[in-house]
Each structure stands twice: as structure tokens, then as C-alpha cells.
Amino acid sequence: MQAFLGEMCSYYYLYVLPFYNSNKTMYLNFIKAETLTASGIPARPVLTSYYKSRNFKNRARDSFNQYTSPDQTILCIDSRQNMYSQLLAGLVNRKKVIRLGAIFASAFLRAISFLKENWGNMCEDIRSGVLGSLITDSSCRSSMADILKSSDPKSAAEIQEICRRESWEGVLVALWPKTKYIEAVVTGTMAQYIPSLEYYTAGKIPLVGTMYASSESYFGVNLKPLCKVEEVAFTLIPNTDDGPVDEEDKVEKEKLVDTADLKIGLCRYRVGDVVQVVGFSNKAPQMRFVCRRNVVLSIDADKTTEEDLHNSITKAKDMLNGAHLVEYTSYPDTSTLPGHYVLFWEMASDTTCIESGILENCCLVRSTGTKSSIYIYRRCRSHDKSIGALEIRLLKPGSFEALMDHFVTQGASINQYKTPRCIKTKDALDILNSSVTDSFLGKKRFSPKSRPKVLFSPARAD
């Protein structure tokens, strides 16, 4: 069903995007190793299952599926050899590529970072027409031999001239000049990567989020793929999922469902995403993804959600005087009394140009606003004194790549990896703490203000 719906979506985009049906696509796909359950059943991410399936291997070779990457490189289990080979194939065909992308924006940006480190070797491979010794996987080598059919010194020189620039602003436009758009998930927590993508495209290549899906099901499709990323909405596909959508304020907690209420052979699950209905297409609702409904941080009575954290980071960004925050995560540090929130920040540039007072003020953003959760946090900070001052720890460049490498070695899928918004393991925390270059604490004390006005009163029982 998912392969069928994916094919139907591609036909729709062939219709709405006139340039869709031409040339090649550098879409970066990755798989991860399988694990076995206690009963011996292989367990793997849904995308890995799809890439290894006959549906993928025997797919129709239309323009939508005309990847620059040979299937053998996609199926390579070594993520570095996989990424090297796919990027190299994309560079060889760079003047034929009209679409770039990956499942998540974070994976695509990781590929750009990998290219920064390895473009010299790739240029040498293109110049000589021979794959270098960095690639040892036999399937990758044999498939790439068909890509590197002959030496191409001219193309290698062009790529070298582009990549040796001091600034990589607009580098994607220069390397793949015919690109019409970048396809990746750029909603929810992936929205934080939009500034980086716009930097590498110089704002000249649209960012497109085509569909809303999970491992279990497709939910919706973006009927206006070239809209602004902040306006992306997904039209519900009515025949993909018959599960209910709960109103956020009416969710019944811990509700038991009798097995007699479930159809035999089916499982009931809650995805946990919060969506906002913003319109309709005919009678199908159009939804905007908000966040995953969960609590990220909690020290005492406070409950900080992913949305709360994202809003605080957004406020802090406005105070940075143009400095670019690359990535962030958090940690509830209870090693001190009282415990306090820690934010790990990686900046794109030298932070010496940012006054320490500004960063200290950034530590106060969690205490500003009128939302109920902010009130509780402020009360815990100032009245109960059960939460200490928020701390920002600045990290050296590449820290979050090291964190990702750690999780990938622990079995995470590079294709579906998202930076965790809260660090929960000692090993991951040690990686970040070992990269700290400076730290700042919020010094100001807040007086707990009155509770925000209730905008909606509970319904009265008649």
C-alpha cells in the first residue's frame, strides 16, 4: 500500500511540477543493519525493509525513480562508503540533476558536511576515472565502475574550483546548476535546519516537503509543493488510515480498549503527533504539523514540552545579533541541588563577537511569556527555588555530528536520525560535555507573576 501511494504521489507531482519529468535525481537513501528479536525475527526500520524489497529493486524506471545513486550504493551497510559513493555519483551527473534531497533535512545537511571533508578525494576519483581506495565494499566498487567510465579532468577542475571557496553560501546552486528544488522533511523539529539549507542554496532553490507519513502509514500529501515552507499543509489521504484523530483538549488518558473493539489482525496505536487543521480540500482536512506530543524536560512540577523548548530557542535566536545557531539539545541536570536545565548549543561562527551579557540573557528566555507551563517554571525558579538557573553550554563545531555518529554506532538509522531534544544517556552526555568551550548562566531572578488569564472556560453541564 505504501509503495502504491508513493507512486500515486509521484504521478501527482509530475502533474503539478512541469520540470519533474526530466533528467536525474540525487536523492540520498540509507539503510541500517538488521537486528534479531529474542524469537529470531529480523527487526529493521521500514525504509530499510523497502529498499531491500522487490518493490524497490524492481521499481519502474521512470523519471521519479531515476536516481544518480546505483542501488548497490544505497544498500551498502557502511554509512560512510554509502554516502561517499552516492555523493560521488551525484557529482559525476551534476549537470543532469534537477532534484536534490533526502528523507530528513538533517540527513541532507550531514551529507553536505561530509562533502566538505571529502570533496578533494572525489575530485581525484573523477579526474582519474578510478574509484579510490577509500571504498572497499565490492558492490559499491563494481556499481561505481559503471559511473566512472572514463577520466574527466574538466569536470573535476570545475568541482574543485567551487568547493575550495572560502564561503559555501550557494554551493548547491553551483555544484548542481539545474536543480529545481530540494525535497526533504522540513516541518516540525526539522524546521530548525531551514536557515542552513537556505544558506547553502543562497535562497535560490525551493525547499519542498511532499508528504506526511510515519513508519506505520501514510497520512497526507502536500498539494502545493512549491509553497513557502512555513505554509506547508498536508491533505489527509482518506483511504490510508482509519484511525481516529483526537482533539488535543479532549484526549482521554490511559483509556483501555477492549480487544473485541478491534478488527482481528489489526493493532491500535497512537502516533502522538499534534497537528493543526488549517483548511479543507473538498472534504479532506488539510493539516499542519505542529510537534510530537511529549514532555522533553522536567525537574520538579514543571513540564517543558518540545514545543516550549522550540519557542524558547526561537526567542533566543532573535537575541544573537545575526549569529547562527546550528543545532541544540537539552538535559535536565540533577547532579546539583537544585537541578537545572542545560542547553547545549553549537554555533556556526566564532562566538567571541557575542557579548557574554547577551548569552546570559538568552538563559532567561524560558522564564518569559504567558503560557501556563512558563508560569509553573517561573514559580519553581523564584518561589519554590526547586529549579536552578538555566545554563547554556557552547560546543565546538562538529559536536552534533559526533553525537549522531555515536547513536548510529548504537543502532540508530542514519536515514531516520533526528537530533534528540533531550539527552538521556551518559555516553551521549559525555560526548557533548567533552566538547564544551564555554558556559553561561541566567543571573536574573524572576518574581512569579499571576497565572495567565483563562481564555476558554470549561463547558458548563446543563
From TrEMBL:
Residue span(s) of domain GH3 C-terminal: 307-426
| PANTHER family listed in its UniProt record | GH3 DOMAIN-CONTAINING PROTEIN, INDOLE-3-ACETIC ACID-AMIDO SYNTHETASE GH3.9-RELATED
What keywords are annotated for this sequence in UniProt?
Ligase
Organism, scientific name: Papaver atlanticum
Return the GO cellular component terms, semicolon-separated: cytoplasm
In terms of domain of life, where is this protein from? Eukaryota
Record-stated family: Belongs to the IAA-amido conjugating enzyme family.
Q: Which Gene Ontology molecular-function terms are recorded?
A: acid-amino acid ligase activity
Q: Would you tell me the protein name for this molecule?
A: Uncharacterized protein
Q: Where is the GH3 middle domain?
A: 264-292
